[in-house]
């Protein structure tokens, strides 16, 4: 049968595994450091993996493929298939499958309310083979944040520090290459351990900056290419790199310095190194 199914561009895939983690049906696995579609009949065609992919390697295609088999997908993951799942996934069509997926995940706590709403909207779009308008994963949707320092303090907020985070997301892998909040921005490129080592990290480093965090030891791939594009495409005013004294943080510093060189723009920058106790070493 010809149906909607995902396709993974091996050239674009960076092997992060985010799509495999996002796929509730276990249709995606990792092979030789790349994401692969394990079996056609494991893929329900709903595309929860699409917004999870940071490189845009996953797309929908219409091709000859085996029908989605909910029971087989459940068995492969070692979980029992629900009777209603088998029925909903049978001949009910893509719209019914999306509606069932949203209902099942909400009932069992697999999705937050926002994500369930996205699935419900997707179900409506799929009815009658209508085109799907993807809104992206709510958890990684780019947005600017506001903190009203002038808001009246309550008994709790009077004692609690105010967050200095000005945008979402913050992970380098998830951040968009272009966004309005980059215009005239001061960037903070920080190793993710730094915020835990220093109590005043928000006030000392994040205030007034766009925060970008990562860990070269835990994240696969190099940040340099993405950072280069961010610096090249946006009117960035300055860059501050904050790292720990440990050697693995050198990868983050090298990636940022490479991006600064390759961007073709003159951008003032500085490196701040923190000790394990949070003290500034240089």
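Q: What amino acid sequence fits the structure above?
A:
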């Amino acid at each position: 049968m010809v149906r909607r199914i995902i396709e993974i561009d091996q050239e674009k895939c960076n092997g992060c595994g985010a799509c495999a983690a996002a796929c509730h049906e276990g249709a995606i696995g990792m092979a030789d450091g790349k994401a692969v579609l394990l079996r056609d009949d494991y893929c329900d065609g709903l595309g929860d993996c699409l917004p999870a992919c940071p490189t845009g390697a996953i797309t929908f295609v219409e091709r000859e493929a085996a029908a989605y088999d909910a029971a087989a997908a459940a068995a492969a993951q070692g979980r029992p298939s629900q009777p209603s799942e088998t029925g909903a996934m049978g001949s009910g069509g893509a719209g019914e499958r999306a509606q069932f997926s949203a209902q099942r995940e909400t009932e069992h706590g697999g999705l937050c309310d926002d994500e369930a709403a996205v699935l419900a909207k997707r179900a409506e779009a799929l009815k009658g083979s209508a085109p799907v308008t993807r809104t992206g994963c709510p958890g990684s949707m780019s947005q600017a944040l506001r903190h009203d320092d002038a808001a009246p303090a309550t008994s709790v907020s009077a004692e609690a520090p105010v967050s200095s985070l000005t945008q979402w997301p913050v992970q380098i892998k998830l951040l968009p290459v272009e966004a309005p909040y980059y215009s005239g921005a001061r960037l903070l490129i920080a190793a993710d351990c730094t915020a835990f080592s220093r109590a005043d990290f928000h006030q000392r480093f994040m205030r007034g900056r766009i925060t970008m965090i990562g860990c070269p030891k835990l994240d696969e791939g190099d940040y340099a290419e993405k950072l280069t594009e961010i610096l090249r495409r946006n009117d960035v005013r300055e860059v501050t790199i904050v790292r720990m004294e440990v050697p693995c943080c050198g990868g983050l510093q090298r990636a940022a310095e490479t991006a600064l060189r390759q961007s073709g723009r003159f951008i003032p920058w500085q490196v701040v190194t923190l000790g394990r106790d949070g003290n500034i070493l240089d």
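Q: And what stands out in the fold?
A: The radius of gyration is 22 Å.
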